[in-house]
Amino acid sequence: MNSRVFRILYVLCLVLSLSALVRQARLYAHNCAAINDGQISDAGELKRIAITFDDGPHPVYTKRLLDGLKERNVKATFFVTGEHAEQCPDIIKRMHDEGHLIGNHTYSHIQLTSSNREKFSNELLKTSEIIKSITGEETQYVRPPYGLWDKSLEAQLNMFPVLWNVDPLDWCTSNASKVARSVIRDAEENDIILMHDYYASSVSAALMIIDELTKEGYSFVTVDEILFD
C-alpha cells in the first residue's frame, strides 16, 4: 500500500515538474520573440525615446497636443521661444503642471552667428526669466535654433544644449501621415525626435507617431532621461 502511494506521489511530482518546465519554456520563447521583434530590451525594459517640440507654444495647436499627450499619459519636452511664452503663459504653466520638460529656444528664434553672440546670450537669459516667472523653476536645457551652438556658453549660462537625431522636417509639409511614417521608419531606442507644435499637421503627426511607437514597445520620456540616465 505504501509502495502504491509512493508511486502515485512520484507520478504527481513528475507531472508538476514537467508542467513547470513547459511554462518556463513558453515564457522564455515569448521573451526571446519580443526581444527579436525589438519590443523589449535584453534587460526586459521598454525602449526609451524622447519626442520634442520647438517654436511654441501655439495658442491652439499646443493645447490640442497637450490634450493628446495627457490622454496617452506621455511626457514630452518643449523648447519654447520667449515671445510665445509671454503670449501664452497659461500653456507654459500647464506644460509644467502636467510633468513635461520645458527648455529654452531663445526669445525670437534667433540664429547664433559670429557677430551676435551677446544678443543670442541675452535672448536666452530673457527667455529663462520668462519661464521662471511662470513655473518658478530654472531652465537647464536649450535647443539652439538651427542647431548652431557655442560650447563656451554652457558654462557662462549654466545651460545644456539638446540637439536631435530624428528630423522629419515636419514644418515643410502639411501631410501628417508622411511625417509620421518618416519618424516611425527611422526611430530607434534612445533617439530624440524633433517636431514642432506650431502646426496643426505636426500635432496630428506627433500623436500618430506616439500611438504607433507605443505599440512597438517604446516608452516616451523627457530628454534628460535620455541624456543622463
Total helix count?
9
Strand content: 5-15%
Helical proportion?
A: 40-55%
Give me the CATH architecture of the largest domain, please. Alpha-Beta Barrel
Poorly predicted runs: 8-35
Structural class: alpha/beta
Oligomeric organization of the protein chains: single chain
Sheet having the most strands: 5 strands, parallel
- The CATH topology assignment of the largest domain is TIM Barrel
Q: Report the count of strand segments.
A: 7
Evaluate the radius of gyration: 24 Å
List the helices and strands and how they pair.
Blueprint: H1 2-36, E1 47-54, H2 61-72, E2 77-80, H3 82-87, H4 89-97, E3 101-104, H5 117-135, E4 141-142, H6 152-157, E5 160-161, H7 176-186, E6 192-196, H8 200-215, E7 218-220, H9 223-228
Can you tag this structure with a few keywords?
alpha/beta; two-stranded parallel ribbon; 229 residues; TIM Barrel; 12% strand; 52% helix
Overview of the molecule:
The termini are far apart. About 12% of the residues have low confidence. The protein is α/β, with parallel strands linked by helices. The protein has nine helices and seven strands, in the order αβαβααβαβαβαβαβα. Helix 2 packs parallel to helix 8 and helix 7 runs parallel beside helix 8. The longest helix is centred in the N-terminal third of the chain and has 35 residues. Strands 1, 2, 3, 6 and 7 form a five-stranded parallel sheet that branches.
